[in-house]
Amino acid sequence: MTANTPKRLLALDILRGITIAGMILVNNPGSWGYVYTPLEHAAFNGLTPTDLVFPFFMFIMGISTYISLRKYNFTYSHATLRKIVKRTVVIFCIGLFLNLLAKSVFAHHLNFEEWRYLGVMQRLAIGYGVTSLVAITVRHKYFPVIILVTLAAYFLLLAAGDGFNLSETNIVARFDAWALGTSHMYHEGGMAFDPEGLLSTVPAVCHVMVGFYCGKLLLSAKDNGEKIQRLFLVGTILTFAGFLLSYGCPINKKVWSPTFVITTCGLASSFLALLIWIIDMKGYQMVHFFPVVRSEPFVYLCVCGNNGDCIGRYRSKHFYLRKGAGSGAGKLSRLVGIRFVIYYILLEYCAYFIQKKVFMSRSRNGNRKLVR
Questions:
Q1: pTM (2 d.p.)
Q2: Which residues make beta-bridge pairs with 187?
């Protein structure tokens, strides 16, 4: 490990905090019978604000992976490999446990027969693991080529396999059913179609790789001005390219289409550039409005995802039983969702200030020891 430890990017922490706030809101929208339209995913083809949450996490993970592996000079070693494998397995297993818990809570027993093998956490784990392994074994200048070839091949597979139609003939659904079994997949509308399935994880890995390469462009810049220029340039090119290509390759989160990767990575890159301009160039500390999330995002995904499925719906249901739906059900539903966001942000503020206090206390103790 080298002594080259990069300075923490506050704008990236703020972006993670904003994304987590959005995730909490879309996972706890109040009553699922009165969901505010922008808080719903696109039915199939298309893009809504809710569809941006998960890909933003993938993009952020790519940048964080670059920062993490930079300490090891991106060189292969048994210690680095153990770190990557351990982290990948831990995140994947947490996702498996949460899926089992979600099924078992409503079944009142350990429901292994309908245990969903893949999910959000598992996709994050695979994205991190594959990107990290490629990063320490392949020269980074080949990343754009790997991404383009993979996305092009995936598009041809979707085009040839009815991949842009929500049906049982869809190549993504057929492959996942063959590899995983329909009883271990996500079901919607009586059909087994897993939006975090195995085949669609391939372009999702490219998502993390795009974030990784943007991390390289970001940290190799000389100053904040150059960082903003690079991120805005990449973001603008990717966003326009994604929307233009969507006429032939629809933007689709459920199959994680190539245009979905390109467009959402472009939006994430541009948003990060905007935050760097606001925070680092203009000096507006948005920490007063959004929590600085310095711990791993999968911890919050665990808590919020589990709460959203097992607690959020139960509490929202009883909220409406007490208040009464009536004509104001939609407004009440939004208030419940906002309440969850405020609740978790307050929790994160408490965790942040406790962490800050402990860190300052340790620093003072360390200085005292040095004086002695």
A1: 0.82
A2: 192
